From TrEMBL:
Keywords in alphabetical order: Signal
Listed name of the protein: Cu_bind_like domain-containing protein
Leader sequence segment: 1-20
One annotated GO molecular function: electron transfer activity
Organism encoding this protein: Cephalotus follicularis
Superkingdom: Eukaryota
InterPro entries linked to this entry: Cupredoxin, Phytocyanin_dom
Amino acid sequence: TCAQGLVLVITASTLGVSVANKGWSFGTILPPKNSSHHLNYTDRPNKIIVGGSDHWHYGFNYSEWAFKNSPFYLNDTLVFKYDPPSNINPFAHSIYLLPNYWSYLKCDLRAAKIIANTTQGGGEGFEFTLKRWQPYFACGEHNGVHCNNGTMKFFIMPLFR
């Protein structure tokens, strides 16, 4: 359908831009071996803290963070760190996997799957290993408000190492 074609074009364009901006060779989706200018490329899986030292919180642009820290690879582990709600921290966060691009755009959580609740990001954080193509992440708290404002959501396209 037309909608599926549009999603394919957007996805391909996004991958093309990220590939072009990372110094990859034209016509390949694999990074050069032993390339030191690829931030996340190693021969082994990486453990990546979502948001870096800023962690997972309201008001941070995670889409920008994901773009700047790409590429991500299958078997890499994303670590979501956030404080559980308390008397001094009333702001709760969670992590949802959204099923598709349209859910991501609209922050539609109806078919989303919760992967970490409001308490699982404390301490060392919640770890999620990229085992397959599951690229759409969002905070689902406050009926999607944290996602809807455009900051607490991101998508990645994990590649084969």
